[in-house]
């Protein structure tokens, strides 16, 4: 990794260590399995997936990539954790889907293929990189004019600190300890500004309510914890 890369080596190591659990419905990524249908519906309701070129930035083990591909999208998934990509490729073969998985950063990919995609999705990644604004700008470069960019992340509020970090990680053990750092969480105002700076127009912002016990997830008005944003280039 180059010193200038927008990568946290600790985060890469953490997700690499958990790679074997990506498709375990009751494992480390159970919460992502619970919210994945909501994330997919948010994208599908706002953009036409069938036949579209879609980039999944920070694809991990391919949970969202496969869901997008099953809807008819031509999906490319990028991530910097090779162990996660290996799991994604293996599971793709058992699913009978065709997804192009690559180990590359969004920034490097945006130099190689600017304007190539109809849409980019970047879910639960901004809070895990040193410079989230750089990821946002790269996503903007990667989509064609008029294309969509979707983000999902965790707000930096006392409520998210209490429930997403303290309760979920340290009390109930739903998520591995250290998965989230409060200082790295992104507020909606920050995300809106960085999007505008990158030439993106905000179309929608929605909160996401998640109740771990029972796996209930749904869109809501409150953005005090998890939220999603849809931009147009």
How would you portray this structure in words?
The chain has 233 residues and is α/β, with parallel strands linked by helices. The chain has eight helices and eight strands; from the N terminus they run H-H-E-H-E-H-E-H-E-H-E-H-H-E-E-E. It has helices at 9-17, 30-44, 63-70, 82-95, 106-112, 132-142, 158-171, 188-197; strands at residues 53-57, 74-79, 100-103, 117-123, 143-154, 201-211, 216-220, 226-232. The protein has an eight-stranded mixed beta sheet with strand order 3-2-1-4-5-8-6-7. The longest helix has 15 residues, at 30-44. The chain starts with 8 loop residues before the first helix and ends with a strand. The model has no long low-confidence stretch (mean pLDDT 92). This is Ubiquinone biosynthesis O-methyltransferase.
Any descriptors?
233 residues, alpha/beta, globular
List the helices and strands and how they pair.
Blueprint: H1 9-17, H2 30-44, E1 53-57, H3 63-70, E2 74-79, H4 82-95, E3 100-103, H5 106-112, E4 117-123, H6 132-142, E5 143-154, H7 158-171, H8 188-197, E6 201-211, E7 216-220, E8 226-232
Parallel strand pairs: 1-2, 1-4, 2-3, 4-5
Antiparallel strand pairs: 5-8, 6-7, 6-8
Helix pairs in contact: 2-3, 5-6, 6-8
